[in-house]
């Protein structure tokens, strides 16, 4: 097609916005875009020749898109950007962290992510605008949110096995832990 190829897409429940990744410029790499009936925005930053957009997630309120950029041989970097790209994408992950997985909280402002560094595995939470980067006490293996988004439960790893289950409100700094 004249537009290249779409690899992955997601449509918001309201049906007003779609986000997709694809090679629309015939560059050989996937970039990230948002579109509705009257607007079209490239969400990904300017990519180097060997970089491409991997996974992405849209916040529940459809205001932000969180995505990772894969840099082969280096790492996977996590970004957040407004759906309409009013600002440049903001790096969410610290330098040196290879992001393995990420989750957007239902309240639409918090992102949880895990990855590896040269010193081991780490997990963090951060606001979608890049503020408030907070390391979590242990590596998060699995994460689930309550239907209303008021609570989340996470499973952490220690020595390769699930060691604890914790619950917390996304807006709180108190983590309630149960060791297993």
Descriptive tags:
mainly beta, 4-stranded antiparallel β-sheet, 180 residues
Outline the structure in words.
There is one protein chain. Helix content is 0%, strand content 53%. The strands form four sheets. The protein has a four-stranded antiparallel β-sheet with strand order 1-2-3-4, with no helix packed on it. It has a four-stranded antiparallel β-sheet with strand order 5-6-7-8, with no helix packed on it. It is mainly β and 180 residues long. The mean pLDDT is 77. A hairpin with a 6-residue loop joins strand 1 and strand 2. The chain contains no helices and 16 strands.
Topology readout:
Elements: E1 5-11, E2 18-23, E3 31-35, E4 40-42, E5 52-58, E6 64-71, E7 75-82, E8 90-91, E9 98-104, E10 110-117, E11 120-127, E12 134-135, E13 140-145, E14 152-158, E15 161-168, E16 176-179
């Amino acid at each position: 097609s004249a537009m290249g190829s779409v690899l992955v897409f997601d449509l918001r429940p309201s049906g007003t916005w779609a986000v997709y990744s694809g090679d629309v410029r015939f560059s050989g790499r996937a970039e990230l875009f948002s579109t509705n009936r009257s607007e079209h925005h490239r969400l990904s930053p300017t990519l180097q020749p060997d970089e491409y957009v991997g996974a992405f997630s849209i916040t529940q309120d459809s205001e932000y898109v969180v995505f990772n950029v894969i840099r082969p041989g280096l790492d996977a970097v996590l970004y957040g950007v407004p759906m309409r790209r009013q600002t440049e994408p903001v790096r969410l992950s610290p330098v040196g962290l290879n992001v393995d997985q990420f989750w957007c909280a239902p309240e639409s402002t918090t992102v949880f992510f895990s990855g590896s560094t040269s010193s081991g595995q780490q997990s963090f939470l951060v606001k979608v605008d890049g503020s408030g980067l907070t390391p979590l006490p242990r590596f998060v293996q699995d994460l689930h949110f309550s239907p209303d988004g008021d609570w989340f439960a996470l499973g952490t790893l220690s020595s390769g096995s699930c060691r604890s289950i914790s619950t917390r409100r996304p807006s709180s700094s108190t983590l309630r832990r149960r060791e297993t």
